[in-house]
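call fold(seq) -> tokens
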Amino acid sequence: MKSQDKVRVAVLFGGRSAEHEISLQSAANVIQYLDKSRYEVVPIGISKQGHWFLGYELLKQHIDEKEKSKLLAEANTWFTPEWISKPVVQHQPNEIIKRHGALFDVVFPAVHGSFCEDGTLQGLLELANLPYVGCGVLASSIGMDKDISKRLASLAGVNVAPYVAIKFGEWQQRAKNYLQQIEEELTYPLFVKPANTGSSIGISKVKARDGLEAAITEAFRFDTKILIEQGIHAAEIELAVLESLIPGKEPIVSIPGEIRSRHDFYSYDAKYLDENGAELLIPAPISDKIAEQAKTIAKNIFAALECEGMARVDLFLDKTNGELYFNEINTIPGFTKISMYPKLLAASGIDYQALLTHLIELAMNKYKFKSKIKRSYTD
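ret:
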């Protein structure tokens, strides 16, 4: 049964996205670093097929042996799409509740990508009236869409590199027109990327015309909308933003960090498959003036996109003119051992465990405040 003096945290991981494996790594770290004196973990995994499991089965290969021995190793199917519109007496959630007590007090989504980070999951949690860590539906949705987030950043007065957005149906009908537009408005090298993925999945660097169509085809494998962006000779600067526990106070913004890829660009392979694929420089080797500019931009982006809880803001520092450009925002940044978000905040004075505690307290405070809002006109 649930310990009376502990908050029960449902760590949600996996999911139906191309970033499923990265989510497992993030969740394993979150579970291992949560303050066990304050929190009790309820692991909930979502398979690539959309099946929900209560237990650590999906995480086994990502949890070290010492930690694994402390955790309950079970995986009870909680929900699966095949049960929709069918009577499922043998798998009713109340049976799980009987074994484990009240399921949880707050949800920590350690998930990434489509159906997880894009507002879909957040909408489900809102409907279920559950407190959860991180941004709400609106910020999650617009933050995930690189096209929409760039439009809002531009309206907020932040520099955005030129790009062309294309939807799949439009590409099928007017491919030649788009190819002409791209070459009239942009110059090589170009970056072609899905509008709604993370972890550099589906991204290609294109240096000449003969590789453009293949890169577009590759990006459309992962999304129905893609971006073709102007390549910039730039340093990749990242900042972690954390909402304050004091309502109305400006968010905490970390010192900037720089990522130097040892590959042609900071690809999925450079991030996760090659141990020496990139060098993380914290703090970034930039002037104090540029660092302050970057922090101001990150804070403004966080506000412009209506973010809550946390976000990692990625910028480009143009090496030719010293200008900063908005690249993208991650509303559920990675929590793996190599992830910049916790590293940046640790370097700014908030260690991993304190960060997790801060995020959970934010979620529960937000829930208490929203619970006071009237939901009925007549009552």
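The longest strand covers residues 234-242.
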